[in-house]
Design goal:
The protein has about 575 residues and is of the alpha+beta class. It has two domains: about 280 residues, Gamma-glutamyltranspeptidase, large (L) subunit, C-terminal domain (Serum Albumin, Chain A, Domain 1), CATH 1.10.246; about 230 residues, no CATH class. The chain contains 20 helices and 22 strands. The strands form six sheets. Strands 8-3-2-12-11-1-22 form a seven-stranded antiparallel beta sheet, with helices on one face. Helix 3 runs antiparallel to helix 4 and helix 4 packs parallel to helix 7.
Length: about 575
């Protein structure tokens, strides 16, 4: 195998890395050593199917109406980023429990002509007035639900400014022409899906705020149910404004004022101002990439936690049991134990790199990875965090990450690709609305307790202008020549890391079709528990895991919503998680 540094020398390949060349080269070699000849041959064969350049159209997203909107844009000659704008505009309307115009996102963009990979960071920011005790009251942290429902939980929205920047750099159609489906669906109405109806009529307190109650109650006083037609004229006006004015239409003027006013209402008003909203800027970052089998897996850098997935995959290359496949209790047990190590490190060190040092290279240092992987078989109880090279001294973390996120993948006719994870944080965000859309509660993704008992700050403590740590980890997969192989991602709060890792291992390591990989049962091993889709594991697998000290309990975190595809045999092998309502389409 060639050294990883050679990737950028072929056909103007421009893969951006935060890892050192030496570390990556060593990783690639250790990965080869941990993989059997038969497995390596199978992986090489799979990679060899990437002969013709991977091209669209392809869209996989969590709602068919959003997929339709994206496919229409691609049919008109739009780019993958153009389609992403249309998809997000529709998702924010028809799937408001998960993402929206008032939220944030991370987007990975692959440019087929140059093979450049760009990360767009649309993560929200804390207002200028924020302090580490943002969620304290009477000297103590607020109960989590009270923090979510408060005005303090909303950060300056980032999804729309991020999309506007990416579309300016990668779009081919006029921005103003990308909101037609969203406007029509909002004005004329859309059919409420079973999943949305379940959220409207569920127990989430955000669905019971005065804003949500007004929106989700029919004239006869009952709530909308599946099959009803829901109209949102305020949202239609908002997307008309965005089409006309761009991101400025949200960051300034009446919409910004409406956002700030909703945040300022009780209970527990927040201090996000129109100046904070106007000052928000999306960031362009370099991807973090690492080898897995014969592939290169790329994710956003912190404050995304995507590098943790690369750490798990690298540890997996040191763990032969993981290669035994989906029917092996040993493989599932190994996967679970590696997760515990991954989460222990992630929870300790990850935060906004403008404020803290995140030892990304250290977490993937070959010696450190080997040491951590060696701990996995004997783990009992919660895994300790490690001390990777370059690790700072930081305090314990007290961050909670609830449900409420979506992921989609787009590839256009030229082979440009988007992998984007987008969120309002909790279900329906903070439950507050402006302009027909829900506002995020992203600031509760900070550690509600900012310091350890000895006063050491947590890496993810609140600070003015800071971006909270995120589990959102959109993935782009390349071959060793830097060519596009695939893209995927999932919602799921902190479980995103487990869900994305499962999909990558199953599809790239075990060679499963993408839909089958997505639909495998999930296991989330964080701390001292093992949450799982217990009904999906056979009695034999559960018994074999129990023999290894792993007793499965029902998964209590948000379920997965994996969407994406791999380019195999000259076509897209696509998938949309059967746990959600999405679809994957090529035409």
């Amino acid at each position: 195998m060639r050294a990883y540094s050679n990737l950028s020398s072929n056909r103007r390949r421009k893969i951006s890395l935060t890892l050192t060349t030496a570390a990556v080269g060593a990783f690639l070699l250790t990965g080869c050593a941990a993989t059997s000849v038969a497995e390596q041959t199978a992986a090489e064969s799979a990679a060899a199917t990437v002969q013709a350049p991977a091209r669209g159209p392809f869209v996989s997203a969590a709602n068919p109406l959003a997929v339709d909107a994206g496919m229409k844009v691609l049919a008109r000659g739009g780019s993958a980023v153009d389609a992403a704008v249309a998809i997000q505009a529709v998702l924010g309307l028809v799937e408001p429990q998960s993402s929206g115009l008032g939220g944030g996102a991370f987007m990975m963009v692959y440019d087929a002509e140059t093979a450049a990979l760009t990360v767009y960071d649309g993560r929200e920011t804390a207002p200028a007035s924020a302090t580490p005790e943002l969620f304290y009251e009477n000297g103590r942290p607020l109960p989590f639900v009270d923090a979510v429902l408060s005005g303090r939980s909303t950060g300056a929205p980032g999804a729309v400014p991020m999309l506007a920047l990416a579309q300016k750099q990668h779009g081919t159609l006029p921005w103003s022409e990308l909101f037609g489906d969203a406007e029509t669906l909002a004005q004329d109405g859309f059919v409420v899906s079973p999943r949305l109806a379940g959220m409207i009529n569920g127990n989430a307190p955000q669905a019971k705020t005065r804003w949500a109650t007004e929106y989700f109650t029919k004239p006869d006083g009952t709530r909308y149910v599946a099959g009803d037609v829901l109209k949102n004229p305020a949202y239609a006006e908002t997307v008309r404004t965005l089409a006309r004015e761009g991101a400025a239409g949200l960051q300034t003027g009446p919409l910004a004022e409406a956002i700030a006013a909703a945040v300022a209402e009780g209970p527990r008003p927040g201090a996000l101002t129109t100046a904070d909203i106007a000052a928000y800027r999306p960031l362009v970052r370099e991807a973090v990439c690492g080898p897995y089998k014969v592939y290169v897996v790329c994710v956003p850098p912190p404050p995304s936690s995507g590098a943790s997935i690369l750490q798990l995959l690298a540890m997996g290359e040191q763990t032969p049991d993981l290669n035994q496949g989906a029917q092996s209790p040993a493989a599932w047990a190994a996967f679970a134990q590696l997760q515990r190590l991954m989460y222990a490190d992630r929870d300790r060190y990850f935060g906004d790199t403008a404020f803290v040092t995140v030892p990304v290279a250290g977490l993937m240092d070959p010696t450190y990875v080997a040491e951590r992987a060696a701990l996995a078989p004997a783990l009992r109880g919660a895994a300790p965090f490690g001390t990777p090279p370059g690790a700072p001294r930081v305090g314990a973390d007290a961050t909670r990450e609830p449900a409420g996120t979506s992921h989609f993948v787009v590839v256009d006719a030229k082979g440009n690709a988007v992998s984007m994870t987008t969120t309002v944080e909790s279900l329906f965000g903070s439950g507050r609305m402006a302009g027909g859309f829900f506002l995020n509660n992203q600031l509760t993704d900070f550690s509600l307790v900012p310091t350890a008992a000895d006063g050491t700050p947590a890496a993810n403590a609140v600070a003015a202008g800071k971006r909270p740590r995120s589990s959102m980890s959109p993935v782009i997969v390349l071959d060793r020549e830097g060519r596009l192989v695939g893209a995927l991602g999932s919602p799921g709060g902190s479980s995103i890391l487990a869900y994305n890792a499962k999909a990558l291992i199953a599809a790239l390591g075990w060679g499963l079709p993408v839909q089958e990989a997505f639909d495998l049962p999930n296991i989330v091993a964080k701390g001292d528990g093992f949450g799982a889709d217990t009904e999906g594991f056979s009695e034999a697998i559960q018994a074999g895991m129990a023999e290894r000290g792993i007793v499965l309990r029902p998964n209590t975190s948000e379920n997965s919503g994996l969407h994406g595809a791999l380019w195999r045999n000259g076509r897209w092998d696509g998938g949309a998680d059967s746990r959600r309502e999405g679809v994957a389409r090529t035409q």
